[in-house]
Design goal:
The protein has a domain at 4-48. The chain contains 2 helices and no strands. The protein has helices at 4-18, 22-48. Residues 40-92 are annotated as: Disordered.
Length: 92
Amino acid sequence: MFGISELAIILIVLVLVLGAKRLPELARSLGKSARILKSEARAMKSDRTPSATTTPPVLHEPSSGHTVRPAPGDALGRPAVRPETDTDAPRI
């Protein structure tokens, strides 16, 4: 990815910008942050995988072989309109 010359230039710029005293502090804090990130990722991964003590969800099969159909009417729960009562006359 980076060659030796590019890494040397980046290191020289870091020493000039941050100073030789702050560079070890920066490396230490960067390493500490990386360790924290790794441990948190490991903890999340172990939380996500199911353990042997948890029981799998139980799927209930219908007791009878018939299909349940919705009641007549639309999806909003309004009753179906009978053809003999459906007229163009306004309702009072």
